[in-house]
User: Which sequence fits this backbone?
């Protein structure tokens, strides 16, 4: 359920979804940069980070 909420946040505000998943790490700052360069790359990166870190 938490992953679904994070993915929804990633679609609306990509850096927030990454922040809730990995904290203030390199992936968060990369996502900020990608989101500033274009909304879609930020969303793709955020969903990828959340899906990769989701518990199996």
Assistant:
């Amino acid at each position: 359920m938490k992953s679904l909420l994070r993915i929804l946040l990633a679609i609306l505000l990509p850096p927030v979804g990454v922040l809730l998943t990995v904290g203030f790490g390199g992936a968060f700052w990369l996502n900020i940069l990608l989101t500033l360069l274009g909304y879609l790359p930020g969303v793709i990166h955020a969903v990828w980070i959340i899906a990769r870190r989701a518990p199996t």
